[in-house]
Amino acid sequence: MKDKTKLITFRIVLILAFAFLLWYAFSPNENKINNSIPNEELIIPSDNNYNSLSSLDFLTTKDEFSNTYQIHYDHMPVTYNYNEECANYFNGKYPDQIKRALDYITNKTDQAITFEKTDSSKPDIMYNCDFEHGRRNPLDLTIAEAFENYYENIYTFSEIRIYSTEMCLGKKPVTLIHETLHLFGLQHFGYVDYDTPSGYPLQVGEENVMHQETTNCFADISQEDINYLKTIYQK
Questions:
Q1: How many CB atoms lie within 10 A of CB 115?
Q2: Which residues lie below 8 Å from residue 234, measured CB to CB, with a gap of 6+?
Q3: Strand, helix or coil at 224?
Q4: Which of 54, 112, 181, 230 has the greatest count of CB atoms below 10 A from its CB?
Q5: What is the three-class DSSP state of 189?
Q6: Bond before 77 cis per omega within 30 degrees
Q7: Residue 8, SS3?
Q8: Is 170 left (phi over 0), alpha (psi -120 to 50) or beta?
Q9: DSSP string of 94-114?
Q10: Does the global pTM surpass 0.90?
C-alpha cells in the first residue's frame, strides 16, 4: 500500500513539474526572471588594445547592420576627430584633407558610408599626427598606419597615425583614403615587382587606392571594394 502511495505521489509531482515547464516556456517575458544587465549599461572591454588613448570602448545598443558577419561599424554616421598637431598642420588646412578623404569614401559608396566630425576624445576614428616622434623606427619610411579596434565583429575606437607628409598633399589625399579604408576591412592590393628587365621597380596595381605603396595621386577604389562596402552598409 505504501509503495502504491509513493508511486502516485511521484506521478503527481512529475505531472506538476511538467506543467510548470510548459507554463514557463510559453508565458510572456515579464513572467520570467531576468538577472542580466540592461544593454545600455553594459561596458565591454576591447580585445584588441592597439590604440594609445583607451582600453575600454562602448558599443551602441542597436546594430544597424546586423545582417553581416563581417567586422563593421554598427551605426552611421561614423564619427571622427583629430589631434592638435593635425589641426595645425599644413597651415591649418590638414583637417580639410581629412574631410576630402572622407567625402571621397561617402561619394564612392553612394552615401552608404557617412562621417561626422565630433569633439569627443573617443570617436570611432581618431587621426593622430606625430611628425617628429611618431615612427617606431627612424629608418622606417611609413607615411601612416591604421590601428583597428573591435569587439567580436563590431569596430570600436580605432586610430590612424600619421608620421609624414604624403606625396599627394593638396591633391587627392590617397594616403588618408587608403588608411581610412583599412578601418572598413579593406586590405592591400597589388605589389611591387623588383625583378624587371629595366631594373626599375614596377608598381603592379598602382591604379588601386589600396595598393600597398600608395603613390599614385589618381588612384581609385575598385568597384569590387565599393560593392563589398555597399553590401554591408547600404540600407
A1: 21
A2: 109, 110, 112
A3: helix
A4: 181
A5: strand
A6: yes
A7: helix
A8: left
A9: HHHHHHHHHHHHHHHTTTSS-
A10: no
Nearest to 95, CA basis, from 83, 104, 109, 79: 83
* DSSP run (H or E) holding 117: strand 115-117
Strand duo 78-82 + 115-117: pairing: parallel
| Residue 206 to residue 217: CA distance in whole angstroms | 10
Distance CA 162, CA 220 (A): 21
**Dihedral over Cα of 98, 104, 109, 114: its sign:** positive
C-alpha cell at 144: 601612416
User: Grid coordinates representing 38?
Assistant: 540592461
Written as one letter, the residue type at 17 is A
Identity at 95, one-letter amino acid code: P
What pLDDT digit, counting tens, does each position of 104-154 carry? 999 999 999 999 999 999 999 999 999 887 666 767 778 899 999 999 999
Rounded distance between C-alpha atoms, residue 79 and residue 142, angstroms: 25
Please list the alpha-helical segments (H only) found in 63-199: 84-88, 94-108, 174-182
**First and final C-alpha spacing in the chain:** 71
Q: Which helix (H) or strand (E) holds 125?
A: strand 125-129
